[in-house]
Write a structure and sequence with these properties.
Blueprint lengths: L27 H14 L4 H7 L6 H12 L10 H14 L3 H6 L6 H18 L7 H32 L32 H5 L15 H5 L15 H4 L8 H9 L1
Helix pairs in contact: 2-3, 4-7
The protein binds a DNA duplex (21 and 21 nucleotides) through helix 2, helix 3 and helix 6.
Length: 260
DNA sequence: AAGGATATCAACCGCATGATA
DNA sequence: GTATCATGCGGTTGATATCCT
């Protein structure tokens, strides 16, 4: 929905009126004003919207606040494992095209995804002392972390399914298939991280059956834990005890292991 | 309990692009 | 064709929260 024609007759701008623009965190009052105004008049024409709504903010600021925070369909809370997997997959194909990636994660904003990437993924790349865009790091994601993440999602799906059967009163819901996207691929596959259909097609719309929004453990930590899946490197088992120290593993170790 | 380190996230900035006059 | 304005995007920053010693 967009504004058709200006609902505000005054052409005066904040600067014209000697109004100093506010910056920094939004107050509850400002949120309310913006929300009411957008609900009534629709999105768009942000500069005039800011003016007409009486907000001493730039149009840019209003737009950002609405898109990233006030929009009714904005989804808050932890990034689910499914979403994490999707982000990784999409980033491998699109790069830092955050808004494009966000289009595949309904309710998530480009800002949120960007923050996730920078704070979680880049952090781990740094700890591994390799560039986040390097082939090394992408291979680690592809061959170790993502398969483990898929495994975790599968396990969560199975356990929730079992729980539903145990609870006879609970209505049955169809199980969401976990797409086998991140199966180890031939080492010479270079076009994409994934040789099978993109995860975006299999997870979009199925995220509501989450493995758990409340999981505070980030997927990298999860993915590096030992599992019967057989991806774990022995060095990784020290993670719980040694943390992300300087020498708990080396990229070369992993790399060698993948060549076996 | 205090203080420093680190993580997280909201918000801003500059630039690119498209629409319109 | 050009100037101006609005919008959108990606990068960066700063405030706050949380963790650790």
């Amino acid at each position: 929905m967009e504004i058709h024609g200006s609902p505000c007759s005054s052409a005066a701008r904040p600067s014209d009126e000697g109004m100093d623009l506010r910056r920094g965190p939004w107050t509850a009052d400002e949120d309310l004003i913006l929300m009411n105004y957008v609900t009534t008049h629709g999105e768009g024409r942000w500069n005039s919207l800011a003016r007409c709504a009486g907000l001493r903010r730039t149009g840019k600021s209003c737009r950002l606040r609405w898109l990233n925070y006030l929009r009714p369909d904005v989804r808050r809370g932890n990034i689910t494992p499914e979403e994490q997997l999707l982000i990784l997959e999409l980033h491998s194909r699109l790069g830092n095209r955050w808004s494009k990636i966000a289009q595949h994660l309904p309710g998530r904003t480009d800002n949120e995804i960007k923050n996730y990437w920078r704070t979680r993924v880049q952090k781990h790349a740094k700890q591994l002392r390799c560039d986040v865009n390097s082939k090394q790091f992408k291979d680690i994601m592809r061959y170790i972390w993502m398969p483990r993440l898929v495994e975790r999602i599968r396990e969560a799906s199975i356990s929730s399914f079992a729980a539903m059967h145990q609870n006879a009163a609970a209505p049955l819901a169809p199980m969401q298939p976990v797409h086998p996207i991140a199966q180890p691929a031939p080492a010479n596959t270079t076009d994409s991280l994934f040789s099978s259909p993109p995860v975006s097609e299999s997870f979009t719309g199925s995220r509501e059956t989450q493995a758990g929004d409340d999981t505070a453990v980030d997927w990298m930590q999860e993915a590096l834990l030992p599992s019967p899946g057989g991806y774990a490197c022995p060095e990784l088992l020290d993670l719980d005890h040694g943390g992300w120290g300087e020498s708990w593993w080396s990229v070369d170790d992993i790399w060698l292991q993948q060549q076996l």
